[in-house]
Design goal:
single chain; about 575 residues; alpha+beta; 8-stranded mixed β-sheet; 27 strands; about 25% helix
Length: about 575
């Protein structure tokens, strides 16, 4: 008969899944078990560090006898498990009755049948043909049953969390090994936009109080209490409902009651975004603004370190009376196109597509359309404005004023200042960075660098960023310019704003240019203490400074009033 230790090794409880060693890669998945016959079954995808490693199909039904949760699923390496059928039965009051499992784990067939009788949980466990009966004393009051490695039974926990209070404990039997509590944390609301509908979600933080190894997790449920997503934070294991896991779905972290979806035809594909309007309807044509995000895979809200930078700016501008559009960059979120081949010039054409969409609307004044670019989005805004007369004004927020090569070297220098290096070591790193820049710009010599370096720099956006220079862009911009700079910005330091202002004022027959430096604000446009990148993680609940949005609103009002 197998010992308890061998059962623990085979079934492993939750820690088997949650303590996966870093560096484990996805392997081919086990065979797919037959689908559940229940027409109401829901499909979930299981991810490990962003890579799909399994799936599970779950059905929750209620009858006169109580609740039944049924699931079937599979997990690839390192778990390597197939559940042909899992069934958990509860009374109508969610008192546990029975648990059954028919599975194969790492090639070994396993069955478990647990029956709750009063305060005793009797389990018949069979591993690879060897029986291992087991009994545990439990408290059946409000007890939930959560098995190892499969997550359909978490539907019961999601339903419990709908009415649980922060700080309370939910008793759990980790069948067939041990009992523990799930400590309920704070909850927050959010919305998730799928292709079919807008889902109202409730996210609750929980702690699985396993002996000696508490596990932090977040559980999302919909307004009916049905499970949407389970995230184990340390192991980066995610169990996500199929529609929520789709690339086309996105979290709506900020919204207004009259927001509407926006589609902008670009070069062979469409950009997807959000159009925000003032709360009060108006018969008059309104001024409009397009927001342009920073570098990398930026979505319409411009989320950086948990802060929806563009979403917050859009909200402030719409409240002030402007129609505002923000969009997912090409290849990101719900936008089409391919990001890996896009240069800054391509992003400028995408911006022009958004401007055209606004100019064609009957509720927009086509003579009062501004673009506002944050960080790298400033370069994109300048490129578009130099080509498009439909753009009436340009605002640059924490935007580069020096060539891209200088920006990257300045950021490297700031990083090196935090490291304990000799002058020789410091100079060697600077020289290596300069060689990388030369190779990227000329297209010669990249083979001398490691594969990791090549993967980082061999993309069109980075290459075009290195070659960009506002000194070549600003002279072509005939629109009024606003430059807003946080004085604690350590990524695009304040001298960039000084140079942009000088370039703007040097234009022939210079249109108006204004530069505003905001005290105590960092590159994310939020109040900060140091402005250093290592402080960003402490600012998740921060708001874009009202001094920043106020500067944009005041300038737009002044600029558009003069243009009328």
């Amino acid at each position: 008969m197998p010992s308890l230790h061998s059962i623990r090794a085979a079934l492993g409880m939750l820690a088997l899944v949650l303590a996966i060693a870093p560096g484990v890669s996805a392997q081919p998945l086990p065979p797919v078990p037959p689908p559940l016959p229940d027409a109401g079954a829901t499909n979930f995808t299981i991810f490990l560090r962003g890579v799909p490693v399994g799936s599970e199909q779950v059905a929750t039904t209620r009858s006169g006898d109580g609740w039944t949760i049924t699931s079937t699923g599979r997990l690839g390496a390192p778990i390597d498990a197939v559940a042909r059928r899992i069934v958990v039965r509860y009374t109508a009051e969610w008192k546990p009755l029975e648990f059954t499992l028919d599975a194969t784990v790492r090639g070994q067939p396993q069955t478990v049948r647990t029956v709750i009788e009063g305060t005793i949980a009797k389990s018949d466990v069979v591993i690879n043909g060897q029986p291992a009966p087991k009994s545990d004393n439990i408290d059946p009051a409000a007890l939930l049953i959560l098995p190892n490695s499969f997550f359909g039974p978490y539907e019961a926990l999601a339903l419990k969390l709908k009415t649980a209070t922060p700080g309370s404990d939910i008793p759990v039997y980790g069948v067939p090994l041990l009992t523990f509590n799930v400590r309920v944390g704070e909850s927050s609301s959010q919305q998730i936009q799928t292709t079919a509908r807008l889902v109202s979600a409730r996210r609750t933080h929980v702690t699985l109080m396993l002996p000696g190894a508490p596990i932090e997790a977040d559980i999302w449920s919909d307004d009916a209490g049905r499970m949407l997503r389970v995230s184990f934070l340390t192991s980066q294991l995610e169990v996500v409902r199929e529609d929520i896991a789709a690339v086309s779905s996105r979290s709506v972290v900020i919204s207004r009651p009259n927001d509407e979806a926006a589609k902008m035809p670009s070069n062979g594909f469409s950009l997807a975004g959000t159009l925000s309007r003032p709360a009060q309807a108006s018969a008059a044509r309104l001024p409009a603004v397009v927001l342009v995000g920073a570098s990398g895979p930026t979505d319409r809200d411009g989320i950086a370190y948990g802060i929806p930078i563009l979403g917050q700016i859009a909200d402030a501008l719409a409240t002030a009376g402007y129609i505002v559009v923000r969009y997912d960059k090409r290849g990101i979120g719900q936008s089409g196109g391919r990001a890996e081949s896009a240069t800054l010039a391509d992003y400028a054409e995408d911006l022009r597509a958004a401007v055209k969409m606004l100019a064609d609307r009957k509720d927009v004044d086509p003579k009062r359309i501004a673009v506002v670019g944050h960080s790298e989005g400033g370069d994109v805004a300048l490129m578009a404005a130099g080509k498009d007369k439909r753009i009436a004004a340009v605002a640059l927020l924490a935007a580069p004023g020096f060539p891209g090569t200088d920006i990257v070297l300045a950021q490297q220098q700031r990083l090196l200042n935090h490291l304990k290096l000799t002058p020789e070591e410091r100079q060697a790193k600077v020289d290596a960075q300069k060689r990388i820049h030369e190779a990227v710009i000329t297209g010669k010599g990249l083979e001398q660098f490691s594969a990791d370096v090549r993967r980082t720099v061999e993309n069109a956006e980075f290459q075009s960023l290195l070659m960009s220079d506002p000194a070549k862009l600003v002279p072509n911009v005939r629109q009024p310019l606003l430059i807003v700079q946080g004085d604690l910005d350590t990524q695009i330091e304040p001298p960039n704003a000084d140079r942009l202002e000088a370039l703007a004022r040097a234009r022939k027959n210079a249109p108006p240019a204004e530069m505003i430096k905001v005290p105590g604000v960092n590159h994310l446009l939020v109040p900060a203490k140091t402005g250093e990148v290592d402080e960003y993680g402490t600012l998740r609940d921060a708001q874009v400074s009202p001094a920043v949005t106020g500067a944009i609103i005041n300038w737009l009002q002044k600029t558009f009033s003069a243009a009328r």
